[in-house]
Amino acid sequence: MENNYFTKELKSKDLVLRKFESDDYEDMYNNWASDQEIADLAGFPKHTNDEETKSLIKFWIDEYDKENVFNWAITEKNTNQVIGSITVVNKDIKNKTCEIGYNIGRNFWNKGYATQSLSLVLDYLFATDLFDVVIAYCLKDNIPSKRVLEKNGFVCEGELRNRRIIKEQKYNKYEFSLLKDEHERIKKNKELLDKHDWLRITTEVEDYIEPEYYNKLLKHYIFDGKTDLDIFKNFLTNNNSFSQALELGCGSGRVSDIFVKNAPKKYSYDLLDLSNQMLNYTKNKFSNFKFGYIESDTIDYLLNNKKKYDFVFSLWSYSHSVHQQMHKYGVINGGLYTEAALRKFIISDLLPGGKMFIIHFDSMSDEQKILMKQWKRFYPTFSDISKQSPSLFITDNAFSKMQKEEIIDYKITHYVGEEICYESLEEAMETFLNFHMESYANERIELSDVYNDLESYMKKFMKGDKVCIKPGCFIIEITKR
Ligand SMILES: C[S@@+](CC[C@H](N)C(=O)[O-])C[C@H]1O[C@@H](n2cnc3c(N)ncnc32)[C@H](O)[C@@H]1O
C-alpha cells in the first residue's frame, strides 16, 4: 500500500461510501444535520439552515487535499441518497490510534447501515497499517449505537462520567476500542457466519432459546434404558399424594405435559421460568387449565416465595439459575445466596413429607466437558473445569448438610447416558452452539475459537458421517421430614 491514504470509495451490500460532494448538502441537512436528537447524540450543534450544511461540506471537500483524511458520505444504493457520514478524527499516528464517529439519518435506522459502514471503514483503516487501535464513544443510554460497536467487536473500556450536557442535563459516555488483531478475529467470525446461517441466531440469557427451535434441536436423553421423562414419570407415580406442585424452569412444557397427564386428580400447579417467551408458549399449551405462571429466576423465587408446596421438580434448568447467581455475585457469594435460598425454601415452604426432584447436568460427561471449556472463556464461575460444576457442588453440599440436620432425606444418583447421535457434524455443531450454548458465542469475538475447538472435539466422536456423544446427569431426590 502507498504511504498516504485518503477517503477511498468503499462498497457493501446496500451502501456506497464515498467523498462528500458539494451538492450533498440537501440530503445531509434533511437526513441528519437538522435533527435535534441526532445532533445531541453525536454532540454537534444542530444546523438551522442548509447554508450552514453547504459551507461545512465545502470545508470538508477542501480538507480532502490533505493526507490521511477519512470522511465518508454514506449513500444508499437503492435511493442514491446521502443518508449519513462516517469520519475518523483524533488521529495519533505515532501511537497508531484514532477515533471514529458516525451519524445515520433517522429514516434509515434499524437497517444495519451503521454496522455495515463501520465494518467497511474498519477493514480499510486497519489495512492501511496507520492504526492499531480504533476508539469510539457513545452516550451510555444510546443502546443502538452501543450495539453497532459491539457487533463490530468493540470492547467497552469504561464509563466516563458527566461528559455531555444536553438541555442542562449531564450524561455519561462509554469509551469503546477495537484492536487490529480483534478485528482480524471478527473477520474470521464473519466467514463462519457466511458459511453457517444458523450462527446468525442470537438470544439474550433471559430470553433463552425460541421455544419451537428448542423443541426442534432437543434430543432424547436415555439413562439406564429410560428417557429423562420416564424417570420423572416414575418418580411422580411413586409420589403422587401431593396437592401443591411447583415446576422450576418449565421451558416449552415438555415435562409439564408428563406432569399433567400423570398427576393426582386435585392439585394446584405453578410453573416458573425466567424466559417470557418460554412461559407464554407453555401457558398457551395449557390454556384449558388454571395454572399459576411465574416469570422469575429460580433461586430468587425460592428465597422470596411465601407459598407452600409439597411437590417440586426441575429438569435441566435448576443449574442455569445457580450459575447465573454466581456470574452476578461471584462463586462464593452466589453459592451462599443459593444455599440460603434452598434452606429457606425447604425449611419454610416445603411441607412435611413434600418431595423435590431435580435433574442436574453432569459437567464431566463427554457431552458437557467440551462445553464447560467454552463457558470458561466467558465466565470466571467455571475457572476450574477439572471438577464438577459449582452448581452441583454447592447444591450437594447444602442438601447433605440438611440431611445431617435431619431436615430432609436426600439421594443423589449419577447416570451415564446412552450415546446421542447427530446425523452430521453440522447438526452436532448447531446443537452444541445454539442449544447447549444458547447461541451465546455467536455474536462474540471468541466465536471462531469456540467453533474450532468444538469442531475438533466432535471429530473424535464421529462414526461415519454421524457424531455420537454420551451425556450424563445427576438425579436428586428429596423428602422433607
Ligand atoms: C434446558 S431448558 C429445560 C426446560 C424443561 N425443563 C425441559 O426439560 O425441557 C432450561 C430452561 O431453564 C430456563 N431458565 C434459564 N435460566 C433460568 C433461571 N435463572 N431461572 C428460571 N429458569 C431459567 C430457560 O428459560 C429454559 O426454559
In short:
By secondary structure, the protein is α+β, with helices and mostly antiparallel strands. The protein has two domains: 10-195, 3-Layer(aba) Sandwich (Aminopeptidase), CATH 3.40.630.30; 211-480, Rossmann fold, CATH 3.40.50.150. The chain has helices spanning 25-33, 36-42, 50-63, 113-128, 143-151, 180-195, 211-217, 228-238, 254-262, 276-285, 298-304, 318-329, 331-349, 366-378, 390-404, 425-436, 447-459; strands at 10-11, 15-19, 71-76, 82-92, 97-104, 133-139, 155-166, 169-179, 222-223, 226-227, 244-248, 268-273, 292-295, 309-315, 350-361, 408-416, 420-422, 462-463, 466-469, 472-480.
CATH homology-level superfamily of the largest domain: Vaccinia Virus protein VP39
Largest sheet: 8 strands, mixed
CATH class of the largest domain: Alpha Beta
Secondary structure category: alpha+beta
User: From the alpha-carbon coordinates, what is the Rg to the nearest angstrom?
Assistant: 28 Å
Number of strands: 20
CATH topology of the largest domain: Rossmann fold
What strand order characterises the main sheet? 1-2-3-4-5-6-8-7
Number of helices: 17
Mean pLDDT: 96
Unreliable spans: none
Ends distance: 78 Å
Report the CATH architecture of the largest domain.
3-Layer(aba) Sandwich
Count of the separate structural domains: 2
Question: Which overall shape is indicated by the principal axes computed on the Cα atoms?
Answer: elongated
**Residue fraction in strands:** 25-35%
Binned, the helix content reads: 40-55%
Bound molecules: S-adenosylmethionine
